[in-house]
Amino acid sequence: MTSTPDRPAELLEPAPPALLPPWHTPEREALQEQARRFAYDEVLPVANELDPQKGLLPESLLARMAELGWFGITVPAEHGGLGLGVFEYCMVSEELARAWMSSASILARSQGLGTAVADPARRGELLRRSAKGEWIGAIALSEPDAGSDLAGVSTRAVLDGDEWVVTGHKRWCGNAEAADFIQVLVRERDPEPGESRSKGLVNLLLEKDRGSFPVGLTGTPIDKIGYHGFLTWDLVFDGVRIPRENVVDEAAASDEQGEAAARAGFAAAQAFLNTARVHTAARAVGLARAALEDSVVYLQEREQFGHPIGDFQALRFAVAEMAAQVEQARTFYRQVAHLIDLGVRCEREASMVKLEATEMAVRVTNQAMQLHGGNGYTTERQVERHWRDARLTTIFEGTSEIQKRIISDRMLPRSPLT
Q1: Do 203 and 139 meet the contact criterion of CB atoms below 8 Å apart?
Q2: Active-site annotation holder among 88, 293, 384, 397
Q3: Is the pLDDT of residue 360 over 90?
Q4: Which residue, 227, 248, 291, 344, could crosslink 386 as a Cys pair with Cβ 3.0–4.6 Å?
């Protein structure tokens, strides 16, 4: 693959003060510049080498990200994290996704994930490990028959003395084998008549060694057309044992209501998905920006009829439309991230930005492929990678159709007959 020229100057120049958004700070600008330099200098060469081989994120790259503190962007400073918010987490992720989406995605497997346990001392220890990049996990939510419909989860957990015994089938679990833990959404009981279908769901924390699966758990890698960098797994639980106290969700960590609080598995999964959807929007913006930047370079390199093809108005207008769409999506995801950091409930807005940014990324990367002509349909150029990875963003963390359902359900009441 050809490399993008070092950090195009026009894309790094700070905006004039009059154009700075209200959430701009010098600290955020410095963090963005640090992430951008790292993405260009250290991530992009690795991506260009390993992605064609379906290679994995190297330990050396993970170590560098840990050194920079990015596994603990949202972890409180008293636990060794950067003590920042969803805004900074998404901003760094956009920069990383511009180089290789998986390098942004691995951040979602930290940030205090898998630390919301009831014991404060243990929670503090896990947060410190998370901030250091020593507690990187995986999330097992989806199943063959329960993806967008998480209330349909059927993987069963039964108490046997001081342990949960877990049996069932999970799918689309990224990073499962390489993780230090897997957070598993399971059903401990069936809902009573009249109860919501989500009743009886609970999140359990399965601790494990990196590079292997515990007794009773087997996994098969899913062969994907893109999103390389780490493996995505199909998992079968056959009597996996998890300590009784390893119930994990925000309610268990912050509430004093005992067993009732510790059973808020579905609500915790939904809260996780709100941030995950904004994070996906940021990754989509990074991918679209990559395609745009690569196209700007290519249109100046490629000559036809005695001119760089960037001289032709039709192609120039295509670039203008791509740039406008990228900028619009970036502003939207930063607004929603800002609202989340303020504590505003934004399920609808999180779905809106996930829908808009990911569909935009598909359009922009597809247009970039067209601008590259035949060269875009080869592995010699990075644009095919951006296109493959962008296509996935409209599917994971809830498909575009699911986002439309969430948005419309919060705007338009359903008739009793439906």
Answers
A1: no
A2: 397
A3: yes
A4: 291
